[in-house]
Amino acid sequence: MNLTLLLSFAGLCLLLAITPGPDSFLVLRYSIGGVRPGIAAAIGSSVGGLVWAVVVAAGLAALLEQSASAYRTIKLIGGVYLLYLGVRALLAHRKKAKESAPVVPVAASIRSAALAGMLSTMFNPKVGLFYLAVVPQFLTEVTFGSTMTLGAIECVVAGAFLIVLAFAASRAVEILRRPKVTQRLDRISAGVLAALGIGTVASAV
């Protein structure tokens, strides 16, 4: 692999990273409670992508392409998990709305945010299929090392973008620290996660 090829792949990864998806909305969701949970979710998502890189590099992702039932199973698990996160967030929002105290975003733990980001990406088979369909186009020689090199580039690019997104989102919440604004951000991000989960489950059934 030459430098031009690597830069081209990094550019493609950046274009894909800025496209809104479950990972972006998950980072936004956790960033409402503070920049650290948002960054943790971003790093967790990157780790999940790296897991897929290992899987694809080992050739196991071919099973997902050849087995429709395996693909649907993983997709269904991922959709249910996203739906769980969205519903849990919506219930927490309703509970806070009923309280008389001012609405303040509740910061999630670093560990739970990172785990949510990692599991969300790990149970997204589209990530694996991206590696399976796109990565080979940038490989001059298909080896475990070269595949992992591109996987590492994708994870770094996506993780860097998501970390910037976490900083921007948490900063925006600090600037617009009005109860109505935080309520809407909380409700919208939770609703989007739930909608993504429902859509993923529906498409897998």
TrEMBL record:
Membrane topology: Multi-pass membrane protein
InterPro entries from the UniProt entry: LeuE-type (IPR001123)
GO molecular function, one term: amino acid transmembrane transporter activity
Domain of life: Bacteria
TM segment ranges: 39-64, 76-94, 150-173
PANTHER family: ARGININE EXPORTER PROTEIN ARGO, ARGININE EXPORTER PROTEIN ARGO-RELATED
Name of the featured protein: LysE family translocator
